[in-house]
Design brief:
Shape: globular
Number of strands: 18
Number of domains: 2
Largest sheet: 6 strands, mixed
Radius of gyration: 24 Å
Structural class: alpha+beta
CATH architecture of the largest domain: 3-Layer(aba) Sandwich
Distance between the termini: 39 Å
Helix content: 25-40%
Strand order of the largest sheet: 6-7-8-3-9-10
């Protein structure tokens, strides 16, 4: 395996007025699992294709194990790419799909057979080798695509939203299996997703993109607990963070000291789980109207509107009383986040 480093990568497509990637720099350590996370159209798949050599950057450099990949063809970069649509050959059997890359590289037949056997047993595909892709479920096709990548023993695995075609239950199950699989094979992984749950549960490190720019790079905990700006704060977390101006908070009758002495114009963020909640009146707590109650087993989420006009989401382990339309809440001051009202960056 190997470290991957991107330095000042920018990309502008021919005829386009604006770049789709702006000065992207980050490193992926050997055996590290890094997710590129962001909304649709933020440039994450384009970036992955540049790493693979399927797209050429307008400027900047990609290195693998310290070697500049500028003039290295995709087939010579020793990477395995798992596409969103799996890209299996429909007229080939599972075994032929998995072994094709090895046969094209003229690997000895006994070694091909040994690698295919070990990989298919690892992924539970040994009973499906004679089937064609049309006879497989979505989950089975996804495992075949992974097997085709794993059997090559590449330096780096590149995965472009490989779970997006699976139903919710299978996606949940496969997330954990993928993470354990790459730990077992000690793979260096760069994983594209728009799903924050996938990124948070699978990654050692997350690179958050918006409009072709890096917003934050960090561990899942760092990004959740110390978001770099309002975009990251509201993109990560379900339900998303409540964002309020200081004036809105003051209008609720809540006295709040800013992050800097004397500063009055700032924006405050508070996650739904960081509000104290009661169905009964509490002294000095803010009263609100319950507009929506969403019980979800262990947690219940309430949408609460206040007389000041602000609406907040609150998550609680309380079993909220049926038909209870009034709520009282208070902010956990130590869990509040402060952002500049001018540009949204963390203060």
């Amino acid at each position: 395996m190997a470290e991957v480093e991107l330095t000042n990568i920018s990309k502008t497509f021919e005829g386009a007025a604006h770049p789709v990637l702006h000065d992207i720099s980050f490193a992926v350590k050997d055996t590290e699992f890094v997710s590129l996370l962001g909304p649709s159209g933020c440039g994450k798949t384009t970036l992955l294709r540049i790493i693979a050599g399927l797209e050429e950057q307008t400027s900047g450099k990609v290195t693998i194990a310290g070697n500049d990949m500028c003039r290295v063809a995709p087939r010579d970069r020793d990477m395995a790419f798992v596409f969103q649509n799996y890209a299996l050959y429909p007229h080939f059997s599972v075994e032929d799909n998995i072994s094709l890359g090895l046969r094209l590289r003229k690997i000895a037949k006994p070694e091909i057979e040994a690698r295919v056997k070990a990989t298919t047993e690892m992924l539970g595909l040994e009973g499906l080798l004679a089937r064609k892709p049309r006879a497989l479920s979505g989950g089975q096709r996804q495992r075949v695509a992974l097997a085709r990548a794993l059997v090559r023993n590449p330096k780096v695995f590149l995965l472009d939203e490989p779970l997006s075609n699976l139903d919710a239950k299978l996606r949940d199950k496969t997330r954990g299996e993928l993470r354990m699989l790459f730990k077992k094979v000690k793979g260096t992984v760069i994983y594209v997703t728009h799903d924050q749950i996938e990124a948070m549960t699978m990654s050692d490190k997350i690179v958050i993109l918006q409009d072709g720019r890096i917003q934050q790079v960090g561990t899942p905990n760092e990004i959740y607990e110390s978001p770099a700006n309002i975009f990251v704060a509201t993109f990560i977390g379900t339900p998303q963070m409540n964002i309020l101006t200081n004036r809105e908070i003051q209008a609720m009758g809540y006295a709040l000291t800013g992050p800097k002495s004397g500063l009055e114009d700032f924006t405050c963020g508070i996650r739904p789980e960081d509000l104290d909640l009661s169905a009964n009146p509490r002294q000095d707590w803010i009263e609100g109207t319950v507009d929506l109650c969403e019980p979800a087993g262990a947690l219940t989420t309430l949408a609460i509107s206040t007389a000041a006009g602000a609406t907040l989401r609150c998550s609680t382990t309380l079993k909220w009383p049926p038909n209870q339309t009034r709520a009282w809440f208070s902010f956990k001051r130590e869990h509040m986040h402060f952002f500049s009202s001018a540009d949204g960056t963390r203060m």
